[in-house]
Design goal:
The chain has 416 residues and is α/β, with parallel strands linked by helices. It is built from 15 helices and 17 strands. Helix content is 39%, strand content 17%. The strands form five sheets. It has a seven-stranded mixed β-sheet with strand order 4-10-9-8-7-5-6, sandwiched between helices.
Amino acid sequence: MNAAARSAPLQRYDVARIRADFPVLSTTVRGKRLAFLDTAASAQRPLAVIEAVDRYERSSHANVHRGVYQLSQKATDAFEGARTRVQRFLNAASERECIFTRGTTEAINLVAQSWARSRLGPGDEILITWMEHHANIVPWQMVCQQTGATLKVAPIDRNGELRLDAFEALLSPRTRLVAFTLVSNALGTVLPAARIIAAARRAGALVLVDAAQAVPHQKVDVQALDCDFLAFSAHKLYGPTGIGVLWGREAVLRDMPPWQGGGDMILTVSFECTTYNTLPYKFEAGTPNISGAIGLAAAIDYLEGLGIERVHAHEQALLRQATAALTAIPGLTIVGQAAHKAAVISFTLDGVHPHDLGTILDAEGVAVRAGHHCAMPVMEFFDVAATVRASFGCYSDEADLAQLVAALGHAREVFG
């Protein structure tokens, strides 16, 4: 399909046409059609993203910000244009609020080491949920060890939903920060962000939202959310790896010290003292991932061109079909049955270790994730060592689901 055809607006959700935008989906695995069901780990990239990065690498590469020659200015314009694109995507009040990072993990660590470490002390508390990815647990544990603050964890129930009454009971005047995932990567649960943030505000706490699993599936408006920090990664959003965003409320970011030193985050340097650059640059030490930022902007363009609401509706239809189909398989248990879920299904199959099951599915051309999904407390809560996770994206179709179900049938035969 040529570029003009790919950029033409879709009159209906044509998944076959969308799949044609993703070169990897036309490949085979072990002689079988590839059914890629691991989008929650890292989404595949459309040609629009691949070509945007390729154009930059072929004709526009130079270091940004400091060059007075034309190529550097061209690269700087593209890089800062990507920041403007992120601002519009999140409905941020200013480009100064959008900081490029290596991904969600680095963004959360930035807040932990810059905001939390410089402010918290004994008696202060950070509140998270039992559903968090390790990236939204470990940085807070580290800060608590460094400052003497205490980490509190709000429990979940057997459906994989946050126990809001328990969450609200854990809030107190000592709660300085609430950090939670908008969508659970292990269970697919969509958390009630409005109620969580409102409760945190009543307690006087700041709020950080891990939106890594949310931004590919729903519109995220930071001003409407009324949070203080929000983080996401490009590679969950059909973009490149190694690039992500920390959005922060400008008034909060302005008072935070830099967390890394080096080039581009300074205004002046002497052996006696250093003065730091303005936002967002004081948090972007060193040469940035320029091509990654350009790829992220292209990914946002692509997803919004499809229509995030239409993608969401397509994925939800597949989720309903998948839930019904997997529930009908004897011995299969879906882990996490929240009323509101993103297009993620974690499950176990009696008598088959998830890693063995993942290997058998791979032999049938089905790519799924098997393991603890960087959410070991979730596995502990459900008393399982691991799960198999199938996750859907804009390009997933009913043939992928049929292939998964057939492969699971084959696995049951192999293991009796």
